[in-house]
Amino acid sequence: MASVMMFILIPIGLGVVSCLFTLFYISFTSNFFIHSHQTHLTFNSTLNISFVGNLIIQTHTHVQFNGNHVNDNDVFHDRDAFVDNYKEMNRSLKIYVYPHQKDDPFSNVLLAVDFEPGGNYASESYFKKVLKMSHFITRDPSNADLFFLPFSIARLRHDPRVGINGIKDFIKSYIFNISNEYPYWNLTNGADHFYVACHSIGRFSMEKVVDVKINAIQVVCTSSYFVSAYIPHKDASLPQIWPRPGGNPNFAPYKRKKLGFFAGSLNSPVREKLLEWWGNDSDIFVHFGRLDRSYTEELVDSKFCLHVKGYEVNTARIVDALFYGCIPVIIANHYDLPFADILDWKHFSVIVATLDIPLLKKILQGITQQEYLVLQSNVLKVRNTSSGMFPQLILMPFIWLCMSCG
């Protein structure tokens, strides 16, 4: 009888413990357990901290006599450390790119493009194109801190000789060839090698070469803590960029009429939930399908632009928001945000747990005008800072490799 009771009680006990852990996790990642009204606490004239549920926005501002808001906050975790490391990286970091000729049968996949990249996965091509012209490249592999595997996942995907189903075999063959032709892979088993991929297929293309997945540095757009193919602190998050035409957009914060904006495909439960709650709202514009106005007009006309998880955690919407001066609202759990070790995202974006989609309007309306102006000012600061440092910023996670250079 006792054994029967134990047989019954053990699974029940495990179930209760699991439920408690789940509730504990939700209470720290969601605002549903916070029942207090929005509270504003002002400690002095220069520090204002707003609590909207668990969302905390800390801003350091002061108002000049002419009424203009001046932002004293920094978008970096530690600007001085960043500048020092950036200078050291520029001084000493060297990268060896495995060489290939124009007559190579797969030169379209291995060489940098000679045109202006475009499309949803342009980050790959931009990285290779700018890296090729940079001072980081060395022709002497004995001086190299890192070795770049130059294959393009996006171009392999569209090459009829390879296609989606043939990428894994191509990568396996490529690693076999360089490990037999050169000694550098075998010296570290690929630990000082890296590749760049923006399409989600790239993260799963190394299954036939486990050493690449485990040892090599994966610089990918699909940087999710939730997926085993991505290893945080070894791999790096690549921002997804879709080049947009036109000159400098209008950044004026006071001319933005919509509270929030999202447009995209209905390809995930998170987006379905967004549509369910805010599909007919007059302040948050959520649209799936063809827009009545241009995408650019909607971004420029909105205070907050929603980045909502689709098939993957990443889309080009964050960079779109930054480019058009709109504050990104990130609704994608487990997203290892680009440059998170360098940039302090809470100073120029709003991060909302997917469970808190029903509270989205309350959260956004709870941000004061002063806080909004600081966030928008920081958006422009990040935009201007990163625009000329794309490849260098991507390489910042690898700075420790060159710190020991002679």
In words, what does this structure look like?
Helix content is 37%, strand content 16%. A 5-stranded parallel beta sheet has the order 5-6-7-8-9. The longest helix has 28 residues, at 2-29. The chain folds into 2 domains: 93-242, no CATH class; 249-386, Rossmann fold (3-Layer(aba) Sandwich), CATH 3.40.50. The protein is globular, with a radius of gyration of 24 Å. The chain is built from 15 helices and 14 strands. Mean pLDDT is 80; it is low at 4-70 and 398-406. The chain is α/β, with parallel strands linked by helices and 406 residues long. Keywords: Glycosyltransferase, Golgi apparatus, Membrane, Signal-anchor, Transferase, Transmembrane, Transmembrane helix. It is found in: Golgi apparatus membrane. It is a single-pass type II membrane protein.
Note the beta-strand portion.
Answer: 15-25%
Residue windows where pLDDT falls under 50 for at least 5 positions: 4-70, 398-406
Sheet of most strands: 5 strands, parallel
Q: Write down the domain tally.
A: 2
Biggest sheet: strands side by side, in what order?
5-6-7-8-9
Derived from helix and strand composition plus strand pairing, the structural class reads alpha/beta
If you average the pLDDT, what whole number results? 80
The Cα radius of gyration reads 24 Å
Q: How many beta-strand runs?
A: 14
The rough form would be described as: globular
